[in-house]
Amino acid sequence: MDYDRIFKSAIERLHDEGRYRVFIDILRTKGSFPNALCFGGNGPKPITVWCSNDYLGMGQHPAVVAAMEGALREVGAGSGGTRNISGNTHYHTKLESELASLHGKEGALLFTSGYVSNEAALSTLGRLLPGCIIFSDELNHASMIAGIKNSGCEKRVFRHNDLAHLEEQLAAEDRGTPKLIAFESVYSMDADIAPIAAICDLADRYDALTYLDEVHAVGMYGDQGGGISERDQVADRLTIIEGTLGKAFGVMGGYITADRTIIDCIRSYAPGFIFTTSLSPVLAAGALASVRHLKVSNEERRAQQEAAAMLKAKFASAGLPQMPSVTHIVPLLIGCPVKAKKISDILLAEYGLYVQPINFPTVPRGAERLRFTPGPLHTPEMMDGLVEALLEIWDRLELRDAA
């Protein structure tokens, strides 16, 4: 068996399809986000980052950095192992209490990432509910899809945000069958928002549990940063709210919040929790500081929303192919993986502007795009420079004529 040929062939297919991914070598510059240094070629050069999921720049916030430095001096680097063996550090318990409070739930459980929290929670819920059917939005994240698959449950995929289709599927099942509706609040590639209250109405009508992924909304929406469910005042109607500490909160980790019994079940049965070394207390301390800050400060959220609105307006005025967005995410539709990568490469090499192309399987083929996430520290001058660069590249590659 020529194993090497098989592996090389797999990589060659990605090159042939124009969707081979190259990760830049980057160092963010502490205290001057969104500035960073890009390594390679002739050494480090300054760049401006336009695609970070550190939406509010909290990974650079002085309170977050100070909390992490303090924890490092107090307890050292690591957690010492799984929480089953090494126990909870006090930072974990304080953070879980803060997250439960953020979402108005009785309890919370930390994981090493948002991916792990989705996979572990959904797969465990499905195994604990005999005969459960999981109803999943067709645009749910890969981590949710993996969790549903690993649950061994039957699943029903409903059209994106299509309430009539979801109700049709719910109504077709026996009333006594356990049901779980899994969906997201902000869909990060299409930049739209789920009708959470209406989905909760259907869940009530058909006796279903609800599982909401708020990873692209926590920290960003609501008076305390509890996400779209807080903004829309429906958090109390949701069975489980899942979030991340690695995007707007600027650190690392994932979590779920729910009532105490559900949290205890996931803690006790989920392999993704039981057998994984827990978050470093340094990370937990930083996340705790970030959550606490964004609970009382709306300044970062306000400035970020203003930046997103400004960039949308500038793209629209320039006639760039901006996709509809009601959120903080600003995508430009390219529709071709080769062109998307070419534009990204030129922006970085010639203009020092970094935005990663988004290709299949993250988005469908033919829907390739550049996904911009303007933050509170992106200035109008930065945006003008970005628009000028994009227009020059559009003319150079004759993309206006192609459109």
Strands ordered across the widest β-sheet: 4-12-11-10-7-5-6
Spans of at least 5 consecutive residues whose pLDDT stays below 50 are none
SSE-based structural type: alpha/beta
Taking the alpha carbons of the first and last residues, their distance comes to 47 Å
The dominant shape is globular
Roughly what percent helix? 40-55%
Oligomer: single chain
Instruction: Indicate the mean pLDDT.
Output: 95
Number of DSSP E strands:
16
Radius of gyration computed on alpha carbons: 22 Å
Main beta sheet strand tally, sense and closure: 7 strands, mixed
**Beta strand %:** 15-25%
Q: What do these coordinates show?
A:
This protein has 403 residues and is of the alpha/beta class. The protein has 16 helices and 16 strands. Strand 2 and strand 3 form a beta hairpin. Helix 4 (90-103) runs parallel beside helix 12 and helix 5 runs parallel beside helix 6 (142-151). The longest helix is centred in the last third of the chain and has 20 residues, at 299-318. The mean pLDDT is 95.
Would you summarize the structure shown here?
45% of the residues lie in helices and 16% in strands. The protein contains 16 helices and 16 strands.
List keywords for this structure.
alpha/beta, four-stranded mixed β-sheet
